[in-house]
Amino acid sequence: MAPWQRLLALVVAVALPVFSMAADIMVGGSTDGWRPGVNYTEWAEGMEFIVGDRLVFSYPAGLHNVITVDEEAFRSCSAPAGANALVSGHDAVSLNSSGRKWYMCGKADHCSKGQRLLIDVMPLVTVYSTSTSARTDPRSAFTALISAVLLFVMP
């Protein structure tokens, strides 16, 4: 094997584990799920939500729902009239844009009993880290990898 091929193999072997795809995040974790009485602010503290992730709300169908709301509705625990409620019991919400996101249960007084979630979604960025939580945009990472290889291969 030529020296440049060995170098390419080494770069690929080192760089590929850094990349990870979007994550499915079970709201409340596998134990609590989506229900009143859980402190979702505490649950979300220290977690990283990134564009491309999906929030999965798991609950007994019919007992709860999930409504995406704005800040005012979140603070007042009042879902807007005609709000589109997810009701399957295993609802996946894609995080398609960065910024603050608010969710609540619109059943009875569940929101006032804590069944609401506020998160900040971060944009997908290219990062290099040894942390297992590091995530990258695969297209940008691929471009960086090719650029690095070309630096070594070009005369």
Automatic annotation (TrEMBL):
Residue span(s) of domain Phytocyanin: 23-123
Family annotation (InterPro entries): Cupredoxin, Phytocyanin-like, Phytocyanin_dom
Localization in the cell: Membrane
Membrane topology reported for the UniProt record: Single-pass type I membrane protein
Single GO biological process annotation from the record: response to symbiotic fungus
One Gene Ontology CC term in the entry: plasma membrane
Signal peptide as annotated in the record: 1-22
Alphabetized SUPFAM superfamilies for the sequence: Cupredoxins (SSF49503)
A GO MF term: electron transfer activity
Keyword annotations of the record: Copper, Disulfide bond, Electron transport, Glycoprotein, Membrane, Metal-binding, Signal, Transmembrane, Transmembrane helix, Transport
Protein name per the record: Phytocyanin domain-containing protein
Organism of this sequence: Zingiber officinale (Ginger)
